[in-house]
Amino acid sequence: MSAYIRLLAVTCIVCTSACTSMVTDPINSITAFNPYITKDGVQSFRFVAKSKLPSYLEGQDIRQIHETQISNELGKRQYCTRGYNIVSVTEVQGNNLVYEGVCK
Fold first, then answer.
1. 3-state secondary structure labels for all residues of the chain
2. Percent of the chain's residues with pLDDT above 70
3. What percent of the chain stands above pLDDT 90?
4. How far is CA 57 from CA 60, 70, 82, in A?
5. Confidence class of residue 64 from pLDDT cuts 50, 70 and 90?
6. Residue 27 to residue 98: CA distance in whole angstroms
7. Structural domains of the chain, ranges and CATH numbers in brackets
């Protein structure tokens, strides 16, 4: 009976590990997305993403991919419904890009 329990435990661990690696997609992992309103009432946001794409996306336009992710995040939150402008992109430690944007 204890052999069956061990087999079941090992099977669960292996399945969980396999599922976790399938769900963890580096292109969809956002370091941070923070919408906020400035003191003067301007709706703004900060988006932080990795500055390097995974190897299977080599040759793709990283800015276009990040802007698609920004649009998706804004849409999910129904934030900046009239559009947005990226006002700055800054590279910071840890191979990250910080996008600062304002809503129209």
1. CHHHHHHHHHHHHHHHHHHHHHHCCCCCCCCEEEEEECCCCCEEEEEEEECCCCHHHCCCCHHHHHHHHHHHHHHHHCCCCCCEEEEEEEEECCCEEEEEEEEC
2. 70
3. 56
4. 6, 18, 30
5. very high
6. 16
7. 26-103 (3.30.200)
